[in-house]
Amino acid sequence: MLESMSDFHSYAHSHLAYLQKHGQKVIYKKGQLLVRREEDSPWSFFIESGYVKMMFTDDIGNERVLGFGIPGMTITQSGSFYSMPHVELEYEAHTDCIVWRMPRSEFIAAMQQNPEIFREWHERILQNHNLLIERILYIGEKQPRRRIISWLLAMARYYSFHQPDDSYFIEIPVNQSIIASWTHLSRETTSKIISELKKQGLIHIKHRFITVPDIEKLRKALYA
């Protein structure tokens, strides 16, 4: 498991310190659910290690990946802090995870009392806002190849480590089913496009980890 953070996401150290002192440590095995979509979860979760998949079901019953919770991030059930209608998300441990949790009412109180905890939360909200805007843009790409490439560029921006050789190592292990779910494409279409990009040397994949060796070449491939 990688211990450093991707370039885009900052690690919420104040959240970790507070939850280690006042919260409950829980270990989730790969595939275990932290939050079920049909339940009202009372928890806020801080991810110390591992990755949490956040999913929803579309209008025709397909499971779609919205994004991932990564180490250093605090996550809560969608709509936890307001009463308006919202998408019902399900949170699943994508890998074995160590998380710290506490009732979200207590977490809200901690933010009100601790400016540093609130600052980290506010920073996270702004980061996720940018990420979700980018998701709207790549899901809106009608041409499947452009959608996959746009998704890869977004992954390189938000979920990657910029390596000394100028490549981008995407930190979340994915397979073609997850990519298809994330990009709202069929698995067959996704498999074909990913294979083409690999053959062209635009991406490398090893043990379900994607590396983009040359981000500019990948960006130019959008218009090829």
Describe this structure in words.
By secondary structure, the chain is an alpha+beta fold. 39% of the residues lie in helices and 25% in strands. It has helices spanning 13-22, 104-113, 115-139, 144-158, 176-183, 187-199, 215-221, and strands spanning 24-28, 33-35, 43-49, 52-57, 63-69, 74-76, 90-93, 97-103, 160-162, 168-170, 204-206, 209-212. The strands form three sheets. The protein has a four-stranded antiparallel beta sheet with strand order 1-8-3-6. Helix 3 (115-139) packs antiparallel against helix 4 (144-158) and helix 4 (144-158) packs antiparallel against helix 7. The longest helix has 25 residues, at 115-139. The model is unreliable at 1-5 (pLDDT under 50).
Descriptive keywords:
12 strands, 7 helices, 4-stranded antiparallel beta sheet, disordered N terminus, 224 residues, alpha+beta
Concise summary:
The chain has 224 residues and is of the alpha+beta class. 39% of the residues lie in helices and 25% in strands. A 4-stranded antiparallel beta sheet has the order 1-8-3-6.
What average pLDDT do the residues reach?
89
Strand order of the largest sheet: 1-8-3-6
Spans with pLDDT under 50 lasting ≥5 residues?
1-5
Task: Summarize the helix and strand pattern as letters.
Answer: HEEEEEEEEHHHEEHHEEH
**Major β-sheet, in short?**
4 strands, antiparallel
**Rg (CA only):** 18 Å
Number of strands: 12
Helical run tally? 7
Q: Could you estimate the helical fraction of the residues in percent?
A: 25-40%
Strand content: 15-25%
Shape: globular
**In whole angstroms, how far apart are the ends?**
36 Å
Query: Based on helices, strands and strand pairing, what is the structural class?
Result: alpha+beta
